[in-house]
Amino acid sequence: MKEKIEELKKILDVKLEEATDLTKLNEFKINYLGKSGPISELTNCLRDLDVEKKKEYGKLITDFKNDIFSKYEESKSKYELEELNKKLESEKIDVTLPSKRIRRGSKHPNSLTIEAVEDLFVSMGYDVVDGPELETDEYCFERLNLPKGHPARDMQDSFYITDEVLLRTQTSSVQARYMESKDNEPIRIIVPGKTYRREEDATHAAQFSQIEGLVIDKKENNVSLADLKGTLEVFARKMLGKNLDLRFRPSYFPFTEPSYEVDVTCFKCGGKGCNLCKNTGWIEVFAAGIVHPNVLRANGYDPDIWGGFAFGPGWDRITMFRYGIPDIRYLYQNDIRLLNQFDRKDDE
Ligand code: DAH
User: Fold this and answer.
1) Which among 91, 122, 140 is the end of a domain?
2) Of 16, 103, 163, 345, which has the highest C-beta tally within 10 A?
3) Which residue, by CA, sits nearest to atom 8 of ligand 1?
4) How far is CA 279 from CA 142, 175, 249, 263, 276, in A?
5) Which of 152, 145, 107 lies closest to 297, judged by CA?
6) Rg, the chain, Cα only
7) Tens digits of per-residue pLDDT, 307-344?
8) CA distance linking residue 172 with residue 299, whole number of Å
């Protein structure tokens, strides 16, 4: 028995030496260290021996087993480490390589427009004000001199939610809200915001954006049509082109009297006439006027003491003119091919 053990020891030592990678080592384990391997066979032979011999050889076999298992584990660790090192070597990362450029988003052209408009008006002492898009009939119409049944309501096809609640058709609603919130103080605000109407074509989207302007002061301070004209002139020249002229055309809005539609020299042809201005030399940009006494009164301002002007250009229209975008719907489709053209450089 002793010899058998010694012999097997020698054989297994050689076999282990020959197992020079992890696959071969695994084969060695299966063939020699498993349940049906030669060591188990030796153990089985103990069964027929007497107690003393069983003890003696049993110990020898156990020592042998422990010895060969620890040698096997040692080899296994060695080859595992070798394999890991090989892998690390082949997958080495060169940390000095330049990284891939991270693509930076760009600002939406409407954002670029409003940032410029806000900067301009803040520099003239205006506040930038917000208001709810879900509005009541009262603030959207009634407080702006548009009582129920007024024919001018037909000018704006509305999305009603209930009889009294609608998606605001105009940012003018914030005129009423803001005046109401003030206790007879002068007002100078712009209100950029989303508006909604039931219409859609290349120049009208069901959701679009406006920039409302409102200036209210004591009559003794003479806020006049000249101030409105000066303000819109600065606005147009800053946003659309330095040498533009304005043309005031009488118009009608319920909340202003007198009311105007304001044209700007066509910035494409300089006023000579082209396809953009339909050969008139002018492009309509603003709606504006002197705040109607009924609007002042409805919102807590005495029209004998207070007066002012209001204006409301389409925000999208200004963006379209500024950047030559031919269809308003492009502004709301978020097509990356359009947005990519507006790099951050534009506003830096
Ligand atoms: N709210 C009007 C519209 O959506 C535009 C407008 C006209 C605004 C005259 C004004 C204004 O502030 O004075 O058609």
Assistant:
1) 91
2) 16
3) 312
4) 39, 36, 17, 14, 8
5) 145
6) 43
7) 999 999 999 999 999 998 888 889 999 898 898 888 65
8) 13
